[in-house]
Structures are given as C-alpha cells and as structure tokens.
C-alpha cells in the first residue's frame, strides 16, 4: 500500500473564486487525509516580503561569531536564538544544520508558581539592527501574514472535514499567542559529517508553513509504504504539513507525516528554509476537545488504511499533558543545555546522568 507518490499542489486563489472553491476544499480534504503534506501556490503573503526573507536567509548566518554567541539559545528561557551545527540528534544521528529560532511578538507572562510550560512563550532574541538592517521588521511583517494565513487555513480545514465552524476555536482563545519560526541553513555534504540535514520526525503543533528559501531539493516525505517522496522547492509556494496535535484532535483524519531533509551534495551551495510552526493554547489538553465527524468523513480514513510503520516517533505525550507541557518536553529533549539552566526539574527527569553533548529530540 502506498497512499501517495507525490505531494499535491493546491492553488490558494481558488478559495476566493466561488465557482472553484469547492474544488479547493475537495483537494484539501484529500491532501489532509491521504498525504499530510501539500504545496500551497499563490499564498496570501506579499511577494516582496517573501523575497526579502529569502534574501536575508544567507546573510543572517554571516553575522559575526561573537553575535551568534550573544544570541545562543542557552541565553533564552524561551528556547529562542542560535544553535550551531551538530547541536541536535534525531533518530540517533546528529543533524547537520545551523539555525535561529524566532517567534511572533510575545511579552513574557510567566512568574514563579505558574505552570512551568507558560515560560516557553516570551520575547525572541534578535540580531543587532546595525548588523542586519531591516531584518527584524521584515521578518515580523512576514510572520504576521503567515499567522493570519494559518488561522484562515484552519477554517478551510474545518470546512473540508464538515465540522461546525467554531469546532477548533478552543485551541485559539482570545488574547495573545505565540508561534515559533526558524531560519535554517543546511551546509553542503562536504563541509559536514553526514547527509542527515534533519532526521525523520513529526512536527508538534497544528500546521507548519515552510518556505523553501533556496533552489535545493532535499526535503522528503514518507508515505504509508515507507518510501521517501521528494518535495522539491516550487517557486511562490509554501509547503504545508500537519503536526501531531492536529492529528490527535482529528482522530488521525488529518495525518501527521514523517519528513526529513538530506544535505545538499558536495560542492553545492547551502540549502536554506524558513518554517513557521502554528501553536495552540498552552493550557488545552488535546483529548479534552472531542470532535464529531460524520460517518462519510470517517470512511475516508478507513479507505486510507492505518498509518503504517514510519521512521519517527515523537510528541506521543499529547494524550496526557496540556499542550504547553508537551512542547516544553520536546524542547527540553532537543536542547538540554537550555533545560539545565532554566528547567532544572525537567532536566533531571530526562537527563538523570547529567548534560549530554547534544540534545536528542526523538
Ligand atoms: O528545512 C526543511 O525543509 C524542513 C525543516 C523541518 O522539517 C523542521 O524544522 O521541522
Ligand atoms: Fe519538520
């Protein structure tokens, strides 16, 4: 059984065309249930902002070493900032990528005595303006548009699954929220020690909107037969995929799909990408929200078949803890040096033998 052999391309401009909107919704239903990945063409994000973010990506990694040191993630209780190549392990092997974690604007609200996971949201660390003029403002303007798209996309998903319009509203209560976003660099194979850019994994929250910020192939998506299907860059698209929390709350209808990135070949320039990860309210326990799907929709899942053996396991804790806690655990596993400093109890739980050389997310 192989449920897909390519990643479908959906044209967002159909959404505002009353005659063709049903076509989009049908394609979306298929992509959510059978693939868990799609390309979104003509997304409602200003082209000039997307192009500017793409142009900034290589420059961000050229800021001086002492600025990278100042911005290192260890300086942020919110797990924002710079991570060098080799800081993380996925599936037992070191990831060959360098990255900056940023977030949408958020004022820290955690105080001692509050649940620890509330501390995950707070201000990001930004490079000195004079070192990269305009970057912060441009990137935040870009993120705001992707955030709006992410909510609009949830409404389309609710429609595609035949749910009442407010069905997922408990995950987005009024008031401020924070979404995470990164800028990632994958050096070519000859300057790193393996071709694992990032190993097989699932994303955590609801939706991921990935901007492939250079021409390199390398992103791959695993189908139900275990085959790795290429998802090469397509200009003016986002790659959209489903996180574990959304899979869980939709009873597996929206499928979280394992994916990985292979390093560019020797002699190549580096690959860059800019993923945006849509968050959900930190206090919500996913199993507390029970959705009712029609038998016709549920049958589509049965026709797909069970999600087969895949090469990744992570974020299984959504059945148990508030979603903020699940994400905090994920961060602690990935970045033990940050955990040791700001979350000593959790650090002891996951690293009883002390600080490892690298984090191991999955
Ligand atoms: O860089 C990419 O294309 C994908 C990155 C990714 O899957 C992740 O960071 O979760
Ligand atoms: Fe991912």
UniProtKB/TrEMBL annotation:
Domain called Fe2OG dioxygenase: residue spans? 173-280
Query: What are the record keywords, sorted?
Result: Iron, Metal-binding, Oxidoreductase
The record's section on SUPFAM superfamilies has: Clavaminate synthase-like
What family does this belong to? Answer: Belongs to the iron/ascorbate-dependent oxidoreductase family.
Tell me yes or no: is Metal-binding among this UniProt entry's keywords. Answer: yes
Any one Gene Ontology MF annotation carried by this entry is: oxidoreductase activity
Source organism per UniProt: Grifola frondosa (Maitake)
Under PANTHER family, the record lists: 2OG-FE(II) OXYGENASE FAMILY, PUTATIVE (AFU_ORTHOLOGUE AFUA_3G14880)-RELATED (PTHR10209:SF812), OXIDOREDUCTASE, 2OG-FE II OXYGENASE FAMILY PROTEIN (PTHR10209)
Pfam families to which the protein is assigned, alphabetical? 2OG-FeII_Oxy, DIOX_N
Record's keyword annotation contains Nucleus: no
This protein's name: Fe2OG dioxygenase domain-containing protein
């Amino acid at each position: 059984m192989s449920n897909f052999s390519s990643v479908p391309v959906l044209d967002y401009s159909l959404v505002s065309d009353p005659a063709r909107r049903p076509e989009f919704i049908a394609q979306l239903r298929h992509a959510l249930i059978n693939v868990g990945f799609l390309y979104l063409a003509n997304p409602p994000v200003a082209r000039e902002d997307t192009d500017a973010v793409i142009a900034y990506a290589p420059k961000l990694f050229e800021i001086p070493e002492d600025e990278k040191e100042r911005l290192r993630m260890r300086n942020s209780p919110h797990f924002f900032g710079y991570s060098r190549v080799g800081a993380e392990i996925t599936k037992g092997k070191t990831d060959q990528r360098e990255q900056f974690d940023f977030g949408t604007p958020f004022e820290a609200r955690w105080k001692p005595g509050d649940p620890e996971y509330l501390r995950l949201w707070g201000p990001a660390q930004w490079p000195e303006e004079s070192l990269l003029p305009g970057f912060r403002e441009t990137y935040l303007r870009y993120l705001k548009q992707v955030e709006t798209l992410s909510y609009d996309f949830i409404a389309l998903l609710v429609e595609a699954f035949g749910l009442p319009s407010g069905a997922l509203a408990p995950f987005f209560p009024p008031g401020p929220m924070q979404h995470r976003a990164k800028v990632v660099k994958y050096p070519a194979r000859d300057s790193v020690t393996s071709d694992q850019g990032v190993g097989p994994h699932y994303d955590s929250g609801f939706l991921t909107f990935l901007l492939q910020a250079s021409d390199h192939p390398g992103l791959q998506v695993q189908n139900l037969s275990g085959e790795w299907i290429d998802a090469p860059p397509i200009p003016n698209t986002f790659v959209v995929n489903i996180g574990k929390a959304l899979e869980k709350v939709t009873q597996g209808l929206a499928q979280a799909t394992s994916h990985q990135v292979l390093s560019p070949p020797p002699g190549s320039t580096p690959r860059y990408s800019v993923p945006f990860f849509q968050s959900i309210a930190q206090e919500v326990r996913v199993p507390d929200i029970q959705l009712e799907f029609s038998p016709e929709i549920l049958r589509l899942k049965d026709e797909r078949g069970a999600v087969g053996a895949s090469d990744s396991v992570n974020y299984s804790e959504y059945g148990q803890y508030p979603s903020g806690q699940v994400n905090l655990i994920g961060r602690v596993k990935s970045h033990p040096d940050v955990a040791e400093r700001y979350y000593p109890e959790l650090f002891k739980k996951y690293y009883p033998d002390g600080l490892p050389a690298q984090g191991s997310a999955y």
